């Protein structure tokens, strides 16, 4: 939503004309981000109100409820009020960190609490998979581009494309079958682990292996492919010829001159992907019963538990906006052309 | 520009060295950590494939949660293992007054809560009175007390319940009895604290909850003082799986010992596997094909958009004649189910009804065609029949898009109906969309089903006039919209008849009446498909016997009866491999980190040279 394409960042006409300082740039970007988040909240609110299905009917399905109880529920949930009054209430609560209450999963539990306890497992899973994917993806991408059209390049690109297109849940299940019980197939903790910190840590790491590898296998491909293509884009540039003409060794030219420039689009991608990656963890968390946000979303969708869904999506969308903001600010730090113009 | 990469590489180098230290520490720590992990008593691990909402027995609604409640808390009575009939539990005996309005329960003495306090009739009275006075306490089992007038405990071993009207399920109140001394101090039953061990950890059932990690697992320890005798398994672990395929895999690899809710394909794949025994038990559900016969709300106004031709009982009869329920059981359920009859499944043999040979509408496409011919629906040149008014016989068929069962049924039914000149447009939708549509009669044919209880009242009540929704579409619990004075009369008679045999007679007559009017076709009763590690455990008690379910039961018998096959066999064979793999993993980490260091060195030397 706020992410302009790369060209717009590099040659932003406003930047050229005004030539203003970093403070104004940061302020402007932060303001844009805030507006985006507000728009997202508004959009989600009305989008979720448009979904078919009466929330009270969903709650009381298969249960014996009197008309009086139903009326009380409608009043308690505020669905008897005009939609704009509901929105005002919702927005006011949101400003106070109140995302409402779950209606189905854990009837009456604050959504913020539910999201809070699921956040850390997802950050651990997605974070570790992303870090590894970035490292492995960039490394392979650089190698592949530098040795373009070699067997290594073609093999790597082929493997990456294959893994990228494999359904995550299938890959996860295959890993479960192939590893034949060497790693736990569910959850984040084993009930048998000793209570001391070290055993608990090892236990969590042991549980992390399969879901993390599954995500990694799918994630690294795009970093590799982007790094490869942006490095290929740099390879015929004049400055590299100059560098070579200076007599610098080939790997030095690559590491000191070509790669830093090619890293720019990749940096943006890493940040942009973070939000999308959390959503992408839904299927992997379901396969491995990992108690994270993805699983919460999966459960909430099954209900459907609208306050929980709305809360999760608001948090995810805000994370994407925040990451984009960071990417834009970092871009300014990384690319002197943006900074000094 | 090069500054960035150099910086980057220095960072990697630093991280690399830190990483190597961490990896080495991890390696060194493994021998310390593993013995703690490997300790396995006689632990029975059950795969849960449905969620747990609460442990608080007043608010726990989901199937897995109520099952935890059954393991932890004793009930006044429990359905016995043999026939799922009321049998003594906390109450040794119970007697109704001559007018059937007052029930006196004799409470067992000598039973103790897990904190040592005695269990008395006062605890039971407290539990029911809390449900009568606190709306939140009625969340899970409120329907059992809706008709209660008063509940008192004149002494420690006597509980007296007075009801407003005759209530037939008084000998099977499915309500866990909680300790008064723990719960009376809790004002708000919706409080998250009511799921804490300090509250739910005090109980009197065969097992006692010892650890709860939300969304992950529940651990229960055997209650050594359980009045029936201590369970033979020391610990029960209920492990949550989101994905049944992953759970099946865990069973194969010995990570869990019992699993249920398998689909026919998973069940077939587990059959004949070494060390695994499968159990196809008669289920508690029925599947049905609802026919929109011109449905109405509870003020008798027509609602929905059903095809008017279905108001003709001849068309509904022809559809019923054209559905081969045996083929559906054989092909769609792969033989793992029983052909449908009445709405009470055969697992409750006392109340189950099957049409007699004369009542039965047999699968016969020629007869179905004849029925439609006689009723005046002529076949056009395109093979599609038209109603006397000129409308074509085109029906919409809806069901769950995400269930392979519904997909299979939709295919077969469409084919058969085509053979009798009825075109079917399949329209399988999301669960929510389906329940929205069927709640207001927006369907012609709908695939659905219900789970039933040992008491037939619930299954029958779904088809009474009162179960229809109000004119604004609210409050309905029916899926058939059936409204028939004759049926309602039979329903009321069974509700107040306390002579078991007579009541069963009414229950069967009601099902026969429903069957004869074709508002719905009961297609089949799916088996509950379960599997367990017979190389590690035996003695799972099924309900009912001999061929009932282990986990899918209204009792704790399955798990309570489990016996370890031998202490050695029960030990975790995977732990040795686990250690091996942790070591291999650590070596890989070290190699990777080593590579990182080498990489950074090269960067450094390049910097030096430049």
Q: Would you write up a description of this structure?
A:
The complex is a heterodimer of chains A (341) and B (610). Chain A is mainly alpha-helical and 341 residues long. In chain A, 77% of the residues lie in helices and 0% in strands. Chain A has helices spanning 6-10, 13-18, 22-50, 55-60, 67-77, 83-95, 111-146, 151-165, 168-179, 197-235, 238-245, 250-287, 293-302, 306-334, 336-340. The radius of gyration of chain A is 24 Å and the shape is globular. Mean pLDDT of chain A is 81; it is low at 1-19. Chain B has 610 residues and is of the alpha+beta class. Chain B is 35% helix and 19% strand. Chain B has a six-stranded mixed beta sheet with strand order 14-20-13-19-17-18. The interface between A and B is large, with 69 and 70 residues.
Outline of the structure:
Chain A is an all-alpha fold. Chain A is built from 15 helices and no strands. Chain A: Pfam families: BPD_transp_1 (PF00528), BPD_transp_1_N (PF19300).
**Structural category of chain B:** alpha+beta
Shape of chain B: globular
- Name the biggest interface: A-B, 69 and 70 residues
Assembly level: heterodimer
Query: Which regions of chain B have little confidence, pLDDT < 50, spanning 5+ residues?
Result: 1-39, 567-576, 601-610
Count the DSSP helices of chain A: 15
In round numbers, the mean pLDDT of chain B is: 86
Number of strands of chain A: 0
Query: Mind telling me the C-alpha Rg of chain B?
Result: 30 Å
Show unreliable segments of chain A: 1-19
Binned strand content of chain A: under 5%
* Overall pLDDT of chain A: 81
The main sheet of chain B orders its strands as 14-20-13-19-17-18
User: Whole-number radius of gyration of chain A?
Assistant: 24 Å
Biggest sheet overview of chain A: none
Structural class of chain A: mainly alpha
Task: Measure the end-to-end span of chain A.
Answer: 25 Å
Assign a percent range to the helix content of chain A: over 70%
Large-scale geometry of chain A: globular
